[in-house]
Batch of 4 targets.
Target 1
Amino acid sequence: MQIEREVKPILHRQKCAACGYYTIYRAIPAGDKACDSCTHCGHTVEMAWFADLKSAIKNRERMLRDMSEMFPELNDLKNPGDHIMLD
């Protein structure tokens, strides 16, 4: 018997390709894939789920943390649905 471990959604910040806002995204793993969704407009992208995905998301978060020195508004992105336009 194979026991599947429940993996919680991963919330992270990024710029949405559909609406153009920087927003909170929700990555929801489902087997060997994950659905990554913009919590502002609902745009969803399917991506491969791999062991280092959390690390890749943390790297993106580090980049946004560095960007927040120039754009302090990025620090306001804390809850699903939060969004800002920087461009």
Target 2
Amino acid sequence: MKEFEFFGDFIFEDFIENKIANKEFKKFCITIYDHWLSEEEFQNNLITYWDVLNGEYKFSEYLNYENKYINLFNNLFNKFKIFTFDDDFDIIPKLNLIKSKPELKEILQDCLREKMFYNFVIPELEIVIFGNFDLSLPIYMKPSNKKVSEMIKESELYLLK
């Protein structure tokens, strides 16, 4: 698939095991936190959509964080083609081009709210972003990719190594 050519030969499990063929790419994390959480912080501060449903956090607080991701992805969408794929495939994922901002928002909210995990590919930036359950999204990219780092920072999110 040409959308993944920048990674070289790989199978999906290589991502999961952090063993992609192209060693230039590293795994980072896009998150609302400015540092890796300690065990105690993780237990006391982790915010998931289920915490909102359980009444542990206000919905407005959760939406504030969710909107940072929506802003980031809208900014990416304005400049680049975004493809998505879910985890329901054997080896090579089927990519779907996101055609509109409402579609992007729905997919992203489903992902952040743990309804369905989606993964995102932006070939022009040579990045793959994976869905996750705790407002932290794993991203594979070259460490030298300043454009992505700046866009994440502009969205008031953090890129952790």
Target 3
Amino acid sequence: MRKAVWRPVVAWVCVVVMGSAAWAQSAESLSVPVAPPAIAAMGAAAAPAPAALVVAPPVVAPPVPAPLTRPGLVPQASLNGADTAWMMTSTALVLLMTLPGIALFYGGMVRKKSVINTMATVVAVAALVSLLWFMLGYSLAFTPGSGWLGGSSRFWFEGLDYLKEAGKVSVSHIAPNIPESVYAMFQLTFAIITPALIVGAFVERMKFSAMVWFVGLWSLLVYAPVAHWVWEPGGWIAQMGALDFAGGTVVHVNAGVAGLVCAYVLGPRRGYGREPFEPFNLGLTMAGAGLLWVGWFGFNAGSAVAADGRAGLAMLVTHIAAAAGAMAWMLAEWVVRRRPSLLGLCSGLVAGLVAITPAAGFVTPAAAVVFGGGAGLACYWGATGLKRLLGADDSLDVFGVHGIGGIVGALLTGLLASPAVSGAQGSVFTQAVATFAVLIYSGVVSAALLLLIGKVIGLRVDEAGEQTGLDITQHRERIGT
């Protein structure tokens, strides 16, 4: 009987114990058990904490480096490969504009007896300016100094380093995403083409030796300071807020007024206005103009210093402006002279390219038509009516195309710059002040250099040498038969 009584009791005890164990197991999976302090302390030493209690260390973001205010070394990994590749390509395109672009463009327009001299002058300018840029020019233009001139920290390219083992490379504070070597080379191509443009104003009459002295001194005393004023963040024109995306004032206004001064100081070519000056080969001129058109994509789109949307827009507006300039000049010539010409089409496309240069990163494609069309008409007048009013033998219309086109482009940039494109707000008054400052400075210093060189070694070849042609008298070479 006792056995009959205890059996159900034992069964119920087993059921309760097993049920309690099952409930405890399920509760453990749903919540963290709270143990008495003594037991918890003992367990902490004997077993690892549950995974849910492991707290990950806080993620600390790497410090953001302060923006560079001068050239300096950065980790190689901080460079942008796409930007670097695009800037190297742009550099090659801009150099192509001078060699052989300008050499062909100008060589085809001069008389046969001075073609070699014209081309040799362009090659000599490229070589001379390259060495001066390496020695002094780059530092004077693109390092911090005063508002008027850069410093000496990059003389002889000192500090322009690539340190493979340390993983460091020098960059410019203006272009921190690409190696400074690429940026310095890109800007060198601008320093080369600017005095090369001036050559068109004094062809067929200037001594080669005088040209070498003039270009060398002009590169250091005019181009480098003006580039610093406009493009180095501490330059006084940059501080004023003037807009010049790719060289409307630094390159074209600067070269245009220097060319006009050269034409005045040297005087006209013998026979100018009394006998026809037949161009040697307009086919060469057209080939040179084509190289300028293509190379200008590097000139303008490369000035974005990045492979981005702004560079793409700059390329597009450059092409549209060139086409509009060619058509505007062609139509003007058709109305005035009753026929279009190849030389007019080439001159018009260059006029459109010149005008859009200061605005390429600031305007819309529709505005580019205004730039190109306006410059085509203005530069046609500059190379014809204005040229007669000025009375200067600007042989290949350097001021008429580059000077007038640069002025038109600079002023239109102030009027048509779109804040939606770049965030920059244009001002016609500010653009006019910057343009006028470059005109005066470049004109005065260019005149002083020419007068000094004229006193020391003379500027012009003699009458017999000019009559024979500079190819023979300056180089003992001739082109063709």
Target 4
Amino acid sequence: MKPVLALALLVLSGCVNPMLSAEMAVGTHGVSVKPTLSGQVGDATVSVEAN
């Protein structure tokens, strides 16, 4: 997981308007959180999402 996080931060360092968001779900098994890092590189939006 650490190499993926380091790569995501490296990619986002070159992005304009970097953002961190999270999807939260509540179910019978408790609460789950799925973080997403995103930003713009030129005209493209780049996002990295945890599995």
